[in-house]
From TrEMBL:
It comes from the Bacteria. Gene3D superfamilies: Periplasmic binding protein-like II. InterPro entries: Bact_solute-bd_prot1, SBP. This is Raffinose/stachyose/melibiose transport system substrate-binding protein. The keyword Signal applies. Keywords: Signal. Pfam families: SBP_bac_1. Residues 1-25 form the signal peptide.
Length: 426
Protein backbone atom coordinates (compact mmCIF):
# COMPACT_ATOMS: atom_id res chain seq x y z
CA UNK A 1 0.00 0.00 0.00
CA UNK A 2 1.46 3.39 -0.99
CA UNK A 3 1.78 6.20 1.52
CA UNK A 4 -0.76 8.23 -0.46
CA UNK A 5 -3.34 5.43 -0.43
CA UNK A 6 -2.67 4.73 3.25
CA UNK A 7 -3.11 8.39 4.15
CA UNK A 8 -6.43 8.54 2.28
CA UNK A 9 -7.59 5.32 3.95
CA UNK A 10 -6.62 6.50 7.39
CA UNK A 11 -8.26 9.88 6.86
CA UNK A 12 -11.47 8.10 5.91
CA UNK A 13 -11.28 5.86 8.99
CA UNK A 14 -10.71 8.83 11.28
CA UNK A 15 -13.55 10.78 9.69
CA UNK A 16 -15.93 7.86 10.08
CA UNK A 17 -14.87 7.58 13.71
CA UNK A 18 -16.10 11.11 14.30
CA UNK A 19 -12.65 12.65 14.55
CA UNK A 20 -11.43 15.71 12.72
CA UNK A 21 -10.07 17.18 15.93
CA UNK A 22 -6.91 18.12 14.07
CA UNK A 23 -8.74 20.44 11.63
CA UNK A 24 -6.76 23.60 10.93
CA UNK A 25 -9.90 25.62 11.67
CA UNK A 26 -9.18 24.93 15.31
CA UNK A 27 -5.95 26.92 14.99
CA UNK A 28 -2.46 25.68 15.83
CA UNK A 29 -2.59 22.87 18.35
CA UNK A 30 -0.11 20.66 20.14
CA UNK A 31 -0.36 16.99 21.06
CA UNK A 32 1.91 16.20 23.98
CA UNK A 33 3.35 12.68 23.61
CA UNK A 34 5.58 10.69 25.95
CA UNK A 35 7.16 7.31 25.37
CA UNK A 36 10.30 5.54 26.54
CA UNK A 37 11.42 3.61 23.47
CA UNK A 38 14.99 4.24 22.29
CA UNK A 39 15.27 5.66 18.76
CA UNK A 40 17.08 2.54 17.52
CA UNK A 41 14.51 0.11 18.95
CA UNK A 42 11.79 -1.35 16.73
CA UNK A 43 9.11 0.60 18.59
CA UNK A 44 11.14 3.82 18.51
CA UNK A 45 11.54 3.51 14.74
CA UNK A 46 7.81 2.81 14.27
CA UNK A 47 6.59 5.60 16.55
CA UNK A 48 8.90 8.12 14.85
CA UNK A 49 7.25 7.25 11.54
CA UNK A 50 3.81 7.52 13.17
CA UNK A 51 4.65 11.05 14.33
CA UNK A 52 5.64 12.03 10.77
CA UNK A 53 2.42 10.61 9.36
CA UNK A 54 0.30 12.31 11.98
CA UNK A 55 1.81 15.73 11.34
CA UNK A 56 1.43 15.24 7.57
CA UNK A 57 -2.24 14.37 7.99
CA UNK A 58 -2.90 17.19 10.46
CA UNK A 59 -0.81 20.19 9.34
CA UNK A 60 -2.52 22.33 11.98
CA UNK A 61 -1.19 20.12 14.77
CA UNK A 62 2.35 19.69 16.10
CA UNK A 63 3.40 16.72 18.20
CA UNK A 64 5.55 17.72 21.16
CA UNK A 65 7.38 14.46 21.84
CA UNK A 66 9.38 13.88 25.00
CA UNK A 67 11.38 10.70 25.46
CA UNK A 68 11.19 9.57 29.08
CA UNK A 69 13.11 6.79 30.76
CA UNK A 70 11.22 3.65 31.77
CA UNK A 71 12.28 4.11 35.38
CA UNK A 72 11.32 7.79 35.28
CA UNK A 73 7.75 7.11 34.16
CA UNK A 74 7.50 4.09 36.48
CA UNK A 75 8.26 6.22 39.53
CA UNK A 76 6.60 9.56 38.69
CA UNK A 77 3.49 8.74 36.64
CA UNK A 78 0.94 8.96 39.51
CA UNK A 79 2.25 12.38 40.52
CA UNK A 80 2.66 13.77 37.00
CA UNK A 81 -0.73 12.55 35.77
CA UNK A 82 -2.38 14.29 38.71
CA UNK A 83 -0.90 17.62 37.63
CA UNK A 84 -1.19 20.13 34.79
CA UNK A 85 1.98 18.68 33.25
CA UNK A 86 0.26 15.47 32.13
CA UNK A 87 0.80 14.50 28.48
CA UNK A 88 -2.11 13.93 26.12
CA UNK A 89 -1.04 10.39 25.27
CA UNK A 90 1.74 8.29 26.72
CA UNK A 91 3.27 4.84 26.73
CA UNK A 92 2.74 3.16 30.08
CA UNK A 93 3.46 -0.18 31.63
CA UNK A 94 0.67 -2.72 31.84
CA UNK A 95 -0.40 -4.76 34.86
CA UNK A 96 -2.18 -4.36 38.17
CA UNK A 97 0.63 -2.41 39.84
CA UNK A 98 0.86 0.22 37.13
CA UNK A 99 -1.99 0.80 34.65
CA UNK A 100 -4.39 -0.99 36.99
CA UNK A 101 -3.48 1.25 39.91
CA UNK A 102 -3.78 4.45 37.85
CA UNK A 103 -7.15 3.35 36.46
CA UNK A 104 -8.40 2.70 40.00
CA UNK A 105 -7.18 6.16 41.04
CA UNK A 106 -9.10 7.81 38.19
CA UNK A 107 -5.94 9.04 36.44
CA UNK A 108 -6.57 7.28 33.11
CA UNK A 109 -9.38 7.78 30.59
CA UNK A 110 -11.84 4.95 30.07
CA UNK A 111 -11.47 4.45 26.30
CA UNK A 112 -13.88 1.51 25.95
CA UNK A 113 -16.23 3.33 23.57
CA UNK A 114 -13.32 4.51 21.44
CA UNK A 115 -11.89 0.99 21.24
CA UNK A 116 -15.20 -0.35 19.94
CA UNK A 117 -15.85 2.58 17.59
CA UNK A 118 -12.44 2.36 15.95
CA UNK A 119 -12.35 -1.44 15.90
CA UNK A 120 -9.13 -1.79 17.86
CA UNK A 121 -10.58 -4.71 19.80
CA UNK A 122 -10.86 -6.71 16.58
CA UNK A 123 -7.05 -6.72 16.25
CA UNK A 124 -6.43 -7.85 19.82
CA UNK A 125 -7.20 -11.42 20.87
CA UNK A 126 -8.50 -12.34 24.34
CA UNK A 127 -5.03 -13.01 25.74
CA UNK A 128 -3.73 -9.67 24.48
CA UNK A 129 -6.78 -7.82 25.85
CA UNK A 130 -6.00 -9.08 29.36
CA UNK A 131 -3.50 -6.31 30.05
CA UNK A 132 -5.60 -3.53 28.49
CA UNK A 133 -8.76 -4.03 30.59
CA UNK A 134 -9.16 -3.44 34.33
CA UNK A 135 -12.05 -3.78 36.76
CA UNK A 136 -13.01 -1.24 39.42
CA UNK A 137 -10.33 -2.63 41.76
CA UNK A 138 -7.60 -2.23 39.17
CA UNK A 139 -7.28 -5.96 38.46
CA UNK A 140 -6.46 -6.84 34.86
CA UNK A 141 -8.41 -9.17 32.63
CA UNK A 142 -11.94 -7.74 32.63
CA UNK A 143 -13.84 -4.48 32.86
CA UNK A 144 -13.13 -1.26 31.00
CA UNK A 145 -10.42 -0.52 28.47
CA UNK A 146 -7.76 1.85 29.78
CA UNK A 147 -5.07 1.30 27.16
CA UNK A 148 -4.24 0.00 23.70
CA UNK A 149 -1.24 -2.29 23.19
CA UNK A 150 0.04 -2.46 19.65
CA UNK A 151 3.08 -4.68 19.94
CA UNK A 152 3.98 -7.76 21.94
CA UNK A 153 7.04 -8.82 23.91
CA UNK A 154 8.56 -11.79 25.69
CA UNK A 155 11.73 -12.88 27.43
CA UNK A 156 14.17 -15.10 25.57
CA UNK A 157 17.83 -16.12 25.59
CA UNK A 158 20.20 -14.17 23.35
CA UNK A 159 23.57 -15.76 22.64
CA UNK A 160 26.87 -14.94 20.96
CA UNK A 161 27.27 -17.56 18.23
CA UNK A 162 31.00 -16.92 17.86
CA UNK A 163 31.71 -17.41 21.56
CA UNK A 164 29.60 -20.58 21.58
CA UNK A 165 31.48 -21.90 18.55
CA UNK A 166 34.88 -21.25 20.11
CA UNK A 167 33.88 -23.42 23.07
CA UNK A 168 32.23 -26.07 20.89
CA UNK A 169 28.83 -25.50 22.53
CA UNK A 170 25.58 -26.34 20.72
CA UNK A 171 22.45 -24.23 21.15
CA UNK A 172 20.83 -25.34 24.45
CA UNK A 173 17.35 -26.85 24.29
CA UNK A 174 16.83 -27.28 28.03
CA UNK A 175 17.80 -25.62 31.32
CA UNK A 176 20.24 -28.49 31.94
CA UNK A 177 21.98 -27.84 28.62
CA UNK A 178 22.06 -24.10 29.32
CA UNK A 179 23.66 -24.77 32.70
CA UNK A 180 26.23 -27.08 31.13
CA UNK A 181 27.09 -24.37 28.60
CA UNK A 182 27.58 -21.81 31.35
CA UNK A 183 29.83 -24.23 33.26
CA UNK A 184 32.03 -24.50 30.19
CA UNK A 185 32.31 -20.72 29.85
CA UNK A 186 33.21 -20.34 33.53
CA UNK A 187 35.94 -22.99 33.11
CA UNK A 188 37.30 -20.88 30.25
CA UNK A 189 37.40 -17.80 32.47
CA UNK A 190 34.32 -16.12 30.98
CA UNK A 191 31.33 -14.83 32.98
CA UNK A 192 28.44 -16.28 30.95
CA UNK A 193 25.55 -13.94 31.74
CA UNK A 194 25.16 -10.25 31.03
CA UNK A 195 22.90 -9.12 33.91
CA UNK A 196 21.49 -5.77 35.03
CA UNK A 197 20.80 -6.12 38.75
CA UNK A 198 19.97 -2.45 39.31
CA UNK A 199 16.82 -2.70 37.16
CA UNK A 200 14.40 -5.28 35.77
CA UNK A 201 16.70 -7.92 34.16
CA UNK A 202 17.80 -9.78 37.32
CA UNK A 203 14.36 -10.30 38.82
CA UNK A 204 13.04 -11.39 35.44
CA UNK A 205 15.72 -14.11 35.37
CA UNK A 206 14.68 -15.28 38.83
CA UNK A 207 11.05 -15.36 37.65
CA UNK A 208 12.07 -17.38 34.58
CA UNK A 209 13.70 -19.93 36.87
CA UNK A 210 10.55 -20.12 39.02
CA UNK A 211 8.42 -20.56 35.89
CA UNK A 212 10.48 -23.61 34.95
CA UNK A 213 8.72 -25.39 37.86
CA UNK A 214 5.30 -23.71 37.47
CA UNK A 215 2.10 -24.07 35.44
CA UNK A 216 -0.64 -21.68 34.23
CA UNK A 217 -2.71 -22.15 37.40
CA UNK A 218 0.32 -20.98 39.41
CA UNK A 219 0.62 -17.94 37.13
CA UNK A 220 -3.07 -17.04 37.43
CA UNK A 221 -3.00 -17.31 41.22
CA UNK A 222 -0.01 -14.97 41.39
CA UNK A 223 -0.99 -12.52 38.66
CA UNK A 224 -4.80 -12.47 38.85
CA UNK A 225 -5.43 -13.46 42.47
CA UNK A 226 -7.41 -16.56 41.53
CA UNK A 227 -6.15 -18.52 44.55
CA UNK A 228 -3.64 -18.50 47.40
CA UNK A 229 0.06 -17.89 46.68
CA UNK A 230 2.78 -19.62 48.70
CA UNK A 231 6.03 -17.74 48.19
CA UNK A 232 7.97 -20.65 49.64
CA UNK A 233 6.52 -23.28 47.34
CA UNK A 234 8.66 -25.45 45.08
CA UNK A 235 8.55 -23.03 42.13
CA UNK A 236 9.40 -19.81 43.98
CA UNK A 237 12.12 -21.44 46.06
CA UNK A 238 13.60 -23.04 42.97
CA UNK A 239 13.75 -19.60 41.35
CA UNK A 240 15.45 -17.89 44.29
CA UNK A 241 17.74 -20.78 45.23
CA UNK A 242 18.83 -21.44 41.66
CA UNK A 243 19.54 -17.76 41.04
CA UNK A 244 21.70 -17.67 44.19
CA UNK A 245 23.40 -20.85 42.98
CA UNK A 246 24.11 -19.21 39.62
CA UNK A 247 25.85 -16.37 41.46
CA UNK A 248 27.90 -18.87 43.50
CA UNK A 249 28.89 -20.71 40.32
CA UNK A 250 30.01 -17.41 38.78
CA UNK A 251 27.44 -17.48 35.99
CA UNK A 252 26.44 -14.04 37.30
CA UNK A 253 28.98 -11.44 38.39
CA UNK A 254 28.52 -9.95 41.87
CA UNK A 255 29.31 -6.59 40.28
CA UNK A 256 26.09 -6.87 38.27
CA UNK A 257 24.06 -5.77 41.32
CA UNK A 258 24.79 -2.17 40.35
CA UNK A 259 24.47 -2.57 36.57
CA UNK A 260 21.54 -0.92 34.75
CA UNK A 261 19.66 -2.60 31.90
CA UNK A 262 21.23 -0.33 29.28
CA UNK A 263 24.74 -1.20 30.42
CA UNK A 264 23.84 -4.89 30.44
CA UNK A 265 22.74 -4.69 26.80
CA UNK A 266 25.83 -2.74 25.78
CA UNK A 267 28.12 -5.30 27.44
CA UNK A 268 26.45 -8.09 25.44
CA UNK A 269 26.73 -6.07 22.24
CA UNK A 270 30.42 -5.54 22.95
CA UNK A 271 30.95 -9.31 23.21
CA UNK A 272 31.87 -9.31 26.89
CA UNK A 273 29.34 -12.03 27.78
CA UNK A 274 28.05 -14.89 25.62
CA UNK A 275 24.48 -14.93 27.00
CA UNK A 276 21.80 -12.37 27.84
CA UNK A 277 18.39 -13.43 29.18
CA UNK A 278 16.08 -10.52 28.43
CA UNK A 279 13.23 -9.33 26.27
CA UNK A 280 12.32 -9.06 22.60
CA UNK A 281 12.48 -5.28 22.99
CA UNK A 282 16.27 -5.67 22.52
CA UNK A 283 15.97 -7.37 19.15
CA UNK A 284 16.07 -4.35 16.86
CA UNK A 285 18.77 -2.74 18.95
CA UNK A 286 21.00 -5.83 18.76
CA UNK A 287 20.43 -6.14 15.02
CA UNK A 288 21.61 -2.59 14.40
CA UNK A 289 24.28 -2.45 17.12
CA UNK A 290 26.21 -5.73 16.81
CA UNK A 291 28.86 -5.53 14.12
CA UNK A 292 31.70 -7.79 15.26
CA UNK A 293 30.10 -11.19 15.82
CA UNK A 294 27.20 -13.42 14.87
CA UNK A 295 24.36 -13.72 17.37
CA UNK A 296 21.05 -15.51 17.73
CA UNK A 297 18.29 -16.28 20.19
CA UNK A 298 16.25 -19.21 21.43
CA UNK A 299 13.11 -19.58 23.49
CA UNK A 300 13.26 -20.27 27.21
CA UNK A 301 11.93 -23.81 27.71
CA UNK A 302 8.35 -23.89 29.04
CA UNK A 303 6.49 -20.87 30.41
CA UNK A 304 8.11 -17.50 29.86
CA UNK A 305 7.56 -13.91 30.94
CA UNK A 306 5.69 -12.12 28.17
CA UNK A 307 2.47 -10.44 27.12
CA UNK A 308 1.16 -7.66 24.99
CA UNK A 309 3.66 -4.84 25.12
CA UNK A 310 3.41 -1.57 26.98
CA UNK A 311 0.41 0.39 25.81
CA UNK A 312 -0.83 3.79 24.85
CA UNK A 313 -2.92 5.37 27.58
CA UNK A 314 -4.77 8.68 27.57
CA UNK A 315 -4.42 10.49 30.91
CA UNK A 316 -7.67 11.73 32.43
CA UNK A 317 -6.20 15.23 32.31
CA UNK A 318 -5.40 15.08 28.59
CA UNK A 319 -6.40 18.32 26.87
CA UNK A 320 -6.54 16.73 23.41
CA UNK A 321 -8.17 13.35 23.77
CA UNK A 322 -9.50 13.10 20.23
CA UNK A 323 -6.07 13.88 18.85
CA UNK A 324 -4.63 11.24 21.16
CA UNK A 325 -7.05 8.67 19.74
CA UNK A 326 -6.10 9.75 16.21
CA UNK A 327 -2.42 9.15 16.97
CA UNK A 328 -3.14 5.71 18.44
CA UNK A 329 -5.13 4.92 15.28
CA UNK A 330 -2.06 5.64 13.15
CA UNK A 331 0.15 3.36 15.27
CA UNK A 332 -2.36 0.58 14.63
CA UNK A 333 -2.24 1.12 10.86
CA UNK A 334 -0.79 -1.52 8.52
CA UNK A 335 2.16 0.66 7.47
CA UNK A 336 3.28 1.40 11.04
CA UNK A 337 2.76 -2.18 12.18
CA UNK A 338 4.83 -3.40 9.22
CA UNK A 339 7.49 -0.81 10.06
CA UNK A 340 7.64 -2.17 13.61
CA UNK A 341 7.81 -5.77 12.36
CA UNK A 342 10.57 -5.08 9.86
CA UNK A 343 12.64 -3.27 12.51
CA UNK A 344 12.58 -6.36 14.74
CA UNK A 345 9.41 -5.82 16.80
CA UNK A 346 6.41 -8.06 17.37
CA UNK A 347 3.32 -6.48 15.77
CA UNK A 348 -0.20 -7.18 16.94
CA UNK A 349 -1.87 -6.28 13.65
CA UNK A 350 -1.25 -8.98 11.05
CA UNK A 351 -1.30 -7.06 7.77
CA UNK A 352 -0.66 -10.09 5.60
CA UNK A 353 2.08 -8.28 3.69
CA UNK A 354 5.49 -9.79 3.01
CA UNK A 355 8.21 -8.80 5.44
CA UNK A 356 11.39 -7.12 4.23
CA UNK A 357 13.17 -7.99 7.47
CA UNK A 358 16.14 -10.31 7.65
CA UNK A 359 15.33 -13.92 8.66
CA UNK A 360 16.79 -13.24 12.10
CA UNK A 361 14.26 -10.43 12.67
CA UNK A 362 11.36 -12.47 11.32
CA UNK A 363 12.16 -15.10 13.93
CA UNK A 364 11.14 -12.86 16.84
CA UNK A 365 7.57 -12.47 15.54
CA UNK A 366 7.26 -16.16 14.66
CA UNK A 367 8.44 -17.20 18.11
CA UNK A 368 5.79 -15.01 19.72
CA UNK A 369 3.13 -16.78 17.66
CA UNK A 370 4.47 -20.08 19.01
CA UNK A 371 4.32 -18.88 22.62
CA UNK A 372 0.81 -17.49 22.21
CA UNK A 373 -0.47 -20.60 20.44
CA UNK A 374 0.95 -22.84 23.17
CA UNK A 375 -0.35 -20.58 25.97
CA UNK A 376 3.14 -20.15 27.43
CA UNK A 377 3.02 -16.41 28.27
CA UNK A 378 3.20 -15.70 32.01
CA UNK A 379 3.16 -11.86 32.27
CA UNK A 380 5.89 -10.19 34.41
CA UNK A 381 6.85 -10.65 38.07
CA UNK A 382 6.42 -7.03 39.22
CA UNK A 383 2.81 -6.62 38.09
CA UNK A 384 0.67 -7.81 41.01
CA UNK A 385 1.25 -5.09 43.64
CA UNK A 386 1.93 -1.33 43.64
CA UNK A 387 5.61 -0.60 44.25
CA UNK A 388 6.46 -4.23 43.53
CA UNK A 389 9.05 -3.35 40.89
CA UNK A 390 11.37 -1.63 43.39
CA UNK A 391 10.81 -4.40 45.94
CA UNK A 392 11.83 -7.09 43.47
CA UNK A 393 14.87 -5.19 42.21
CA UNK A 394 16.09 -4.71 45.78
CA UNK A 395 15.35 -8.29 46.85
CA UNK A 396 17.17 -9.92 43.94
CA UNK A 397 20.12 -7.56 44.32
CA UNK A 398 20.59 -9.18 47.74
CA UNK A 399 20.85 -12.59 46.08
CA UNK A 400 23.61 -11.19 43.88
CA UNK A 401 25.53 -9.61 46.76
CA UNK A 402 24.86 -12.54 49.09
CA UNK A 403 23.38 -10.31 51.80
CA UNK A 404 20.15 -12.34 52.09
CA UNK A 405 19.22 -16.00 51.79
CA UNK A 406 16.67 -17.25 49.25
CA UNK A 407 14.13 -17.69 52.09
CA UNK A 408 14.70 -14.12 53.29
CA UNK A 409 14.36 -12.80 49.75
CA UNK A 410 11.06 -14.60 49.27
CA UNK A 411 9.81 -13.22 52.60
CA UNK A 412 10.64 -9.75 51.30
CA UNK A 413 8.79 -10.37 48.04
CA UNK A 414 5.79 -11.93 49.81
CA UNK A 415 5.10 -9.05 52.21
CA UNK A 416 3.82 -6.32 49.82
CA UNK A 417 1.92 -8.90 47.80
CA UNK A 418 -0.02 -10.11 50.84
CA UNK A 419 -0.62 -6.54 52.00
CA UNK A 420 -2.05 -5.65 48.58
CA UNK A 421 -4.62 -8.44 48.65
CA UNK A 422 -6.80 -6.39 50.97
CA UNK A 423 -6.80 -3.55 48.43
CA UNK A 424 -8.23 -5.81 45.75
CA UNK A 425 -10.71 -7.52 48.04
CA UNK A 426 -8.93 -10.87 48.18
Amino acid sequence: MSKRVLAIALTAVLAIAGCGSGDQADGPRTLKLWHYEGPDSAMGVAWAEAIKQFEAMYPGVKIAFEEKGFEQIQKTAPMVLNSSDAPDVMEYNKGNATAGLLSKQGLLTDISDEVTKRGWDKHLGPGIQTTARYDEKGVMGSGKWFGVPNYAEYVMVFYNKDMFARQGIAVPTSIAELTAAMDKFVAAGVTPLAVGGAEYPAHQIMYQLALSKANKDWVDRFQRYTGPVDFHDAAWMHGASTFADWVDKRYVSKDSAGVKAEDMGVSFMQGKHPIMISGSWWYGRLASGIKDFQWGSFLWPGLTAGSAGNMWVVPAGSKNKELAYDFIQITMSPQIQDKLRDAGGVPLVDTGSASSAAPQLKEVAENFKTLAAQDRLAFYPDWPAPGYYDVQVSAVQKLITGTATPHQVMDEIAKPYQENLANVGK
